[in-house]
Write a structure and sequence with these properties.
With about 100 residues, this protein is mostly helical. Helices cover about 70% and strands about 5% of the residues. The chain is built from five helices and two strands; from the N terminus they run H-H-E-E-H-H-H. The chain has a two-stranded antiparallel ribbon with strand order 1-2. The radius of gyration is 28 Å and the shape is flat.
Length: about 100
């Protein structure tokens, strides 16, 4: 039997049951992965890219690296306002905290 006849016989053989079920399962899961990719993963990656860039929405994006983060490198815990707000929030119940977030009291 030459190679041409071997190739033809492989095309005519039916697909194995396990392979067929795997393809059917993947066809049901594929739309979820595509939706995750478009609606979640791409915006998250774009956010990380924008975190190291300077962009106002109108001009071209300018890569600045970590220069932006140096501006905010002061430790938050040493800030006196942070300590005061943390003591206020720790004394509130979870319902009161959620009301503060919703209504910005």
């Amino acid at each position: 039997m030459n190679t041409v006849q071997k190739i033809r016989t492989k095309k005519n053989t039916p697909m194995r049951l396990g392979t067929r079920q795997a393809l059917i399962g993947m066809s049901f899961i594929a739309p979820n992965f595509i939706g995750f990719l478009i609606l979640t993963l791409i915006p998250v990656l774009f956010t990380f890219i924008l975190s190291v860039c300077k962009w106002d929405g109108f001009n071209p994006i300018e890569f600045v690296g970590l220069k932006i983060s140096r501006r905010y490198s002061r430790p938050v815990i040493s800030c006196p306002v942070f300590a005061k707000r943390l003591s206020i929030l720790s004394s509130l119940s979870p319902l009161q905290r959620s009301c503060l977030l919703v209504w910005r009291c």
